[in-house]
Amino acid sequence: MLKNLVNALLASMLIVVLFVGGYWLGQSPYAPVQLYYPAGNTPSEIETTFSPFWEAWQLVHTRYYELPVDDVTLTDGAIDGMMSSLGDDYTRYLPPADEEAARDTMAGEIQGIGVLVEFVDGNITVVSPFEGSPAEAAGIKAGDILRQADGVDLTGMDLSEAAALVRGPAGTTVNLVIERDGEQFTLDVVRDVIRIPSVRGEMMDGNIAYVRLSRFGDNSAEELAAVLEELMPQNPAGLILDLRGNPGGGLETAVDIASQFQDGGLILTEAFGDGTTRTFEATSGGLATSVPMVVLIDEGSASASEVLAGSLRDNGRGVLVGQTSFGKGTVQTWQPLSNGGGVRITIARWLTPAGTWVHEQGLTPDIEVTLPEPVEGQPFVDTQLQAAIDYLLGK
Predict the structure, then answer these.
(1) How many domains does the chain have?
(2) Residue 303 known to be catalytic
(3) What pLDDT, on the 0 to 100 scale, is given for residue 1?
(4) Candidates 192, 198, 298, 328; catalytic one
């Protein structure tokens, strides 16, 4: 059983998910202020400030050398430029097609290669893979940089534009140039419809329950409850929660999941720009609030994964084993627009119960364990998983 689990873990660590961009990491449905004004109701106090926009709009429509111009393209560009001018990688505009793809991702069904990416130092970089994707089979890894798609250079390209080039209908192939450790290579990846559960679990040797949470999707809390309802009646001696490679997801989902493991207590605090704060407390009735726990994390554990791991550690519910997490300490709100698109706007910092802001530094594990490089012809040893087992068994 352990050998099969290790093989599955190795596959999950090797790559992944659908190219939608990390727009939905750490999403919150709440914002402390109204985020936009209804169309046609421009407040009088900003009419003067907004006048140059309409002057430029009129000039383009009357003086540009190729007329007519596309109003939809101009509008998309204006919104995208406004979001980009804030200088925050997580504040972005999604045109209608990208908005639909992002919501499909949260719902657990997507078409593409299956890799979640973010801007890192100006490069489109794989944050972490979802499990069971075409990219996983092709060998893409967290940290890989996507340089080209079908011969088009992606370096410096807007994330949504790059996503549109990599995504596509199931059954079609995209040719990628990938950079890893300074070396470039080419991969052909066949796109597919990806329908994957976000939670799985099993009993391991030593009477230890193992729960793998691959993302925080719309149905993840319900999936976790179903897994725990199967495992906990077996009275496990310990529980391993594997958050490695989990890129995050909905904030409310993270709170619901944390409540399964801690009986009350603070989960996180949101700190807004106006000085106000909002706290999230665990609810009672969790299914695994007393079993000894180890939480596995790595550099692909981001956002909601860090919320969950930080809360469990600060509340004394578990120790962290593995490698330092990604380090995303901001919260975005997800707002649809009337054109079918949407915006992600960073509205707050989030802090662990102990007041730690993980942004750009991550969570340092209590027990640091690195994974060995796979050696062809030799069985892979998941040293992080084994360390978690040893800890729970008192070795």
Answers:
(1) 1
(2) yes
(3) 44
(4) 328
Measure the CA–CA gap between 57 and 73, rounded to whole angstroms: 12
- CB atoms closer than 10 angstroms to residue 262: 27
pLDDT at 30: 42
For the chain, the straight-line distance linking the first and the last C-alpha, in angstroms and rounded, comes to 20
Domain of residue 269, residue span: 2-15+196-392
328 in catalytic set:
yes
Q: Is residue 41 assigned to a domain?
A: no
pLDDT at 18: 32
**CATH code: domain of residue 324:** 3.90.226.10
Strand 367-368 and strand 342-351: the pairing is unpaired
Q: Report how far residue 93's alpha carbon sits from residue 21's, in angstroms, rounded to the nearest whole number.
A: 12
Tokens of 80: 């995208």
pLDDT in tens, 260-274: 999 999 999 999 999
Instruction: Say if residues 245 and 300 touch (Cβ distance below 8 Å).
Output: yes
* Alpha carbons within 13 A on the beta-carbon side of 102: 28
Q: Determine the Cα–Cα distance for residues 208 and 237; give it in Å rounded to an integer.
A: 6
267: its two tokens? 């989960």
Q: In this structure, is residue 217 part of a structural domain?
A: yes
> Looking at the domain assignment, is residue 302 inside a domain?
yes
Rounded to 10 deg, the angle between the 96-107 and 159-166 helix axes is: 70
Which tokens is 124 given? 């489109």
Distances in whole angstroms, Cα of residue 204 to Cα of each of 139, 214, 236, 367, 386 = 27, 19, 9, 21, 11
Catalytic residue among 301, 314, 325, 382: 314
Residue 370 located in a structural domain: yes
pLDDT in the model for residue 35? 38
Low-confidence ranges of the chain (pLDDT < 50): 1-25, 29-37
- Write down the pLDDT at residue 4: 41
pLDDT of residue 83: 93
Is position 160 annotated as part of the catalytic site?
no
- CB count within 10 Å of CB 344 equals 25
Q: CB of 352 within 8 A of CB of 358?
A: yes
Segments in 234-342 forming alpha helices (H): 251-258, 304-314
- Count of Cβ atoms closer than 10 Å to residue 172 Cβ: 13
Catalytic position from the list 28, 303, 305, 325: 303
